[in-house]
Amino acid sequence: MSTKSREVIWGSRIMGANMRAEQARRDAKLAISIADAAEAEAWSVRMEGYGGPAQPSPTIGQCINGGYRFLEVECSRCKTRASLPLSDIRRPRDTEIWKLEASLKCRNCRTRRYAPPTRMIKLTEHQQITPYKWVHPTEER
Ligand SMILES: [Zn+2]
Known about the structure:
There is one protein chain. By secondary structure, this protein is of the alpha+beta class. It has one domain (37-139). 38% of the residues lie in helices and 16% in strands. The protein has helices spanning 3-50, 60-65, and strands at 70-75, 81-85, 105-106, 118-124, 134-135. The strands form two sheets. The chain has a three-stranded antiparallel sheet with strand order 2-1-4. The mean pLDDT is 89. The structure holds zinc ion. Zinc ion binds at residues 75, 77-78, 80, 106, 108-109. Zinc ion binds next to loops.
């Protein structure tokens, strides 16, 4: 068999297989982001509709991957709400969302020794409220 015909027979099969592999990987990525979005939505609806429970919850990475990039929280004391961009929270992406609650503090209400608890309201795809009054987990101390 000449080099040329070998190229035609095997080369095109290899190329076809590689293309199918790439396509399957793209499909898998899309399927994961759809699953992440659905999980984030289910958690968000549970929080907003029933007030919890917050556990189990998707991770920061899953929420972002699913397109839910903002976490809306409320201060239990002054009732101020804020919409926090999840991408700004410098925690590992595999941190579950519920673990953030304890470290979120309202800038109006916190003192040196005490900060009233915050409540997670829901996840949103777009920022709906200003976050300026809030302390990020990473700004602590
Ligand atoms: Zn407050």
